[in-house]
Design a protein that fits this description.
By secondary structure, chain A is of the alpha/beta class. Helix content of chain A is 44%, strand content 17%. Chain A has a single domain, classed as LmbE-like (Rossmann fold), CATH 3.40.50.10320. In chain A, strand 4, helix 4 and strand 5 form a beta-alpha-beta unit. Chain B is globular, with a radius of gyration of 14 Å. The chains are: A alpha/beta, B mainly beta. Chain A: It comes from Ureibacillus thermosphaericus.
Chain lengths: 225, 117
């Protein structure tokens, strides 16, 4: 499946690295096509658990580390418009729901994106992911039907395929897989353990790399009027 | 400075230095938000409080591994189990953490005379 041309792509995720895992390839491909990409990253992943043992960071120094990692990852993906929205990790679902919808509405009216990439509500595991996807879907749902951008949702809950079937958007990112790897590695505090985990999975015969570095998959979100 | 493994005598002195003062605490336990994703049988419970203002009359670190730290308040208690590392950071805040064998944070107890940002 080839990428559909876009006017502007808006990416909305809560944590630095969500974009790299799910969409770095697609983002890089769009940037290579000259499509502007804005990334609204809601938190700095302040509650990330990986501090190392022996530790490389503290609970209090982690946010600054992750801010720099996010900026570096954006460079690799070619994102020139990074918005760090200043929310706190693991608190998005407790924010005022209308405030979150308004935040997305404001981004949409400013940027007029033709595609938004976010998490797929009910199938995105982490409470921040769910709250982010919900806010995006609700903001777009409230738009006039003919003005709505396309919304791609990332779903990876264990029951996703059983309940939703295979994703309808499957993008071959093989040509930019090196860039995706670099984006993931830019999130060094988050991905060092992952490299080890991956080795374990390879040993168990279930490497993650295949799915991550060849295809990125999304569900086009449909709106019921 | 990096967090280092608990030295009971030194940590006890640091805990003492915040006693009988109004201090802000950060207390957090966590299994990670993906615990149930990886193991559906896992019952994921945790707690988080940041910038609660307390005053403790004394505090104690117990010499066990991992360590327990308890703070006795005028009308109550704060405690944390599983503390392995600590540092007094450049802002004079006492940061204690419990890091598991994979280097993932399981618990944090932090004490500061000024609010955490």
């Amino acid at each position: 499946m080839t990428l559909k041309p876009q006017r502007h792509v808006l990416v909305v995720f809560p944590h630095p690295d969500d974009e790299a895992f799910s969409s770095a390839g697609v983002i890089r491909l769009y940037r290579n096509m000259g499509v502007p990409v804005t990334y609204a990253c809601l938190t700095l992943g302040e509650m990330g658990r990986n501090l190392g043992n022996p530790p490389f960071a503290t609970r209090e120094s982690l946010p600054e580390i992750r801010r720099k990692e996010l900026q570096e990852a954006c460079k690799v993906m070619g994102i020139e418009d990074l918005r760090m929205m200043g929310f706190r990790d693991k608190t998005i679902e407790f924010e005022d729901d209308e405030k979150m919808v308004k935040l997305v509405q404001d981004l949409i009216s400013e940027l007029n994106p033709s595609l938004i990439i976010t998490f797929l509500p009910n199938y995105s595991v982490h409470p921040d992911h769910e709250a982010t996807g919900r806010a995006v879907v609700e903001a777009v749902r409230r738009m006039p039907k003919d003005e709505r951008p396309t919304v791609y949702g990332v779903g990876f809950a264990n029951n996703t395929i059983a309940e939703k079937g295979e994703p309808d958007v499957i993008i071959d990112i093989t040509t930019v897989k090196e860039d995706k790897l670099k984006a993931l590695l830019a999130h060094n505090s988050q991905t060092t353990w992952m490299v080890e985990e991956n080795q374990k999975r390879i040993d168990e015969g279930q490497p993650m790399s295949d799915s991550w570095f060849h295809y990125e998959k999304f569900y086009t979100i449909s709106f019921v009027d | 400075m990096r967090m280092k493994e608990v030295d009971v005598l030194e940590l006890q002195k640091l805990i003492d230095s915040f006693a009988n003062k109004d201090v802000y605490i950060h207390l957090e336990t966590t299994n990670g938000s993906y615990a149930t994703h990886y193991n559906e049988q896992f019952f994921n419970a945790s707690a988080f409080i940041r910038n609660a203002k307390i005053r403790y009359e004394h505090g104690k670190v117990i010499n066990d591994n991992p360590h327990r730290v308890g703070l006795k308040l005028e009308n109550g208690w704060v405690y944390a189990q599983g503390i392995t590392h600590y540092e007094l950071d450049e802002q004079g805040r006492l940061l204690m953490a419990g890091l598991n064998h994979e280097g993932k944070l399981a618990i944090a107890l932090e004490i500061s005379e000024t609010p955490f940002t």
